[in-house]
Write a structure and sequence with these properties.
By secondary structure, the protein is mostly helical. It contains one helix and no strands. It is elongated.
């Protein structure tokens, strides 16, 4: 067995150990702590799409035309 093969075996053992530890924690009910929300100062509420007052779906006549972007 070469040094390269021995290194691969050791690396696989580390990966197996880490995978075993993380799945055991998940089964025990230990949830990972969620990442904190970044403080951007932007209101996260979605902006509703603008609808015509008639309640009819937008048509090419009522929808503003968007110029294609130059390539």
């Amino acid at each position: 067995m070469t040094k390269f093969q021995a290194g691969l075996v050791i690396a696989m053992l580390f990966v197996f150990a880490i995978a075993t530890i993380t799945t055991t924690n998940a089964q025990d009910g230990v949830a990972p702590t969620p990442a904190p929300e970044p403080e951007t100062g932007i209101d996260p509420t979605p902006i509703p799409a603008s609808q015509p007052e008639t309640g009819v779906a937008p048509t090419p006549e009522t929808e503003p035309e968007i110029a294609p972007s130059p390539q």
